[in-house]
Amino acid sequence: MAIGFRFTYAITRPYPFRYFTVIVAVIFIVMTIIFSLFNTVVAGYDLRVSYSTSPNTTTEQKLWYDNRFFAGIKKLSPSCEPKEIGIKQSFNTDKNGLIYTLNKVKNVGKPDSPTLPSLLYLNNHLQDCEVSYIKIEMEKESRTGQQVAWSRWGPSVFGAISCSVINELGHMEIDITAEYDLVPANAAKLSLDLNDTSWDDAARQNLFQFITSNNTQVPAMWWAESIMSYSWVAASLDMSTYNKALETGFQKGTFNFWPSSNVSDFSDLSFFTISWYFLLEGGSIYARPEDFDIETETTSAQNWVKSADSLAKAFYSTVLADLGMADGPNILTDEDALRTFTSNFSNAATEWVPAGPATGSYGSSQPVTGKPVITNSTIFNNYLCQTPVQKVPASLIVSVLLADLVFLRTLWSVMNLAATHIAESKDPKANQCLPCAGEEPSPQPESYELLTKNGGSGSRAVSTITTFDLLNTTREDCLKSKIMDTKQWRRQIGDQTFLVSTDSSLISRDFVQSSFAHPAMYWAAALDPQSLETILETSLWYGIYLQTQGSSTSSQGQQVTPNPSTLKQVGMGRMVTDHATVFFLTDVFVLPEYQGKGLAKWMMQCIKERTDALPAVRRVMFMAKRAPHAIRFYEEALGAEVHDQENGEVVFMSTPH
């Protein structure tokens, strides 16, 4: 069946550009470097999920490719997702002081937009925080038994604050609240061991209501915790003392504080606008709803009102320090005010509730803690981040190599198309071979002298061959070499080693001539040297050899063709063939002294093995002596059969010579 489709190959010729090869080489070297760098960035890194409490630090991490050259590759830059803080959700800042609750979120840039249900936050600095209102609840009877065991009276502080945050949606204004109670409802029970009321014991029981207590790393928060606890204890004791002096004591009460817009001096007693409401045990209400000037109060109430005012100022300063507001009045940033505010810490009567962590005034502790400094604050969160991580070296090399090959192959295709287009635009015959285009004469053959050796005579002759001869015979020689790959078989018979080989270079010319002249080969006769060389070159020979010395082996232990000097030829067989379909066996001969060892039958088996392996062989033919033993020999050795010359479909014919 004919095949309509055939593969073809293109005829090529050099590009008509003088420096094209050099330019291509330089471009490929440069582009290989660029592609490798690019592919290392794109294919050499994976984004891994991680969690970070400092997304700014995470996203600011720079890798080697974070520069202007790779500016367009953003997917492999560290990134963190914003945290969503919902309404009524609690949070704290990175200074780990008070706990805050989010109450309202408003987009200042869009005044007509509704209140947002949550705040998208990504470690943005809190800005423009202001304390608009402080409330102190003085309670006695409504507190839990555990709280009363610690302190008869317990002030609970509440503050309303507003701040600004700049996020990806714009300028957001948030309303938050904060609370403080030195002895909250879940306080641990009071130890009856008077020696166990130290500040350390109270800290272990989480009485100071700071996320991180005794924070010596941040002096401002260390002093904030101290002034809050001492102010709380002072307000509790002064309230208890004042209440004992009354005929009808208080049950509970509320102080309200509004920062005055006219007073900026924090030491001024009129810094806050104050009002209060107290419930007496008899059911009456003692109130000062109007603006109240503490300085004008001449009764004993002045002391406990001043204590409440000090607690409110301590809370005001603590909130602003915790939120990172360094500007404006603040006890913690005014060393004189802090020194005055803490002057009686060492003499403070703390009763059952210990205060701290400071045990003395700022003047005595300042050399240890250092000056309080307020820095910017952020909401403390755990953020989901993605950071690039380099692949293992083996995976990185394979990924970059494959990507480089794709890019370079594409680059070569583009350059090849461009160069071909330019060449053809200048010369329409640029895509034809030079002789076909008439631009170059057909190549003339170059002559070479070839020294050959005549077979039997050993004489040497000089012949002339051309380059065309070499070109025309190269393919045939290669094909012949491939078809006629030599094969060897070895057999040990007694103490003798025999070899069957198809290597024609081992065939002894003298052996062939003497065999042809032997009476047993009645069909042959000795040949002239030229005829002998012809059959040696064109026939497929099977030689039988006696190994006179040990066989040589390769370094891997495989047998190789032995040196002819170690072989003695004792038999042969010749096949006239096209090496693919038809084989004619003739000139089978074994020296009489080596007959009876099964060598001829072994050689036939080798021939059958070799021909059976060929895919297109039609038949192996030969002419045998009309004798029963000869016919039986070839039937057993080769599986041959005698063709019926009278009734068969084919007849064997020959010409007489």
Automatic annotation (TrEMBL):
Residues 506-657 form the N-acetyltransferase domain. One of its GO terms (molecular function) is acyltransferase activity, transferring groups other than amino-acyl groups. The chain crosses the membrane at residues 20-45. It comes from the Eukaryota. Keywords: Membrane, Transferase, Transmembrane, Transmembrane helix. InterPro entries: Acetyltransferase_Butenolide (IPR053144), Acyl_CoA_acyltransferase (IPR016181), GNAT_dom (IPR000182). Pfam families: Acetyltransf_1. This is Gnat family n-acetyltransferase. The lineage of its organism: Eukaryota, Fungi, Dikarya, Ascomycota, Pezizomycotina.
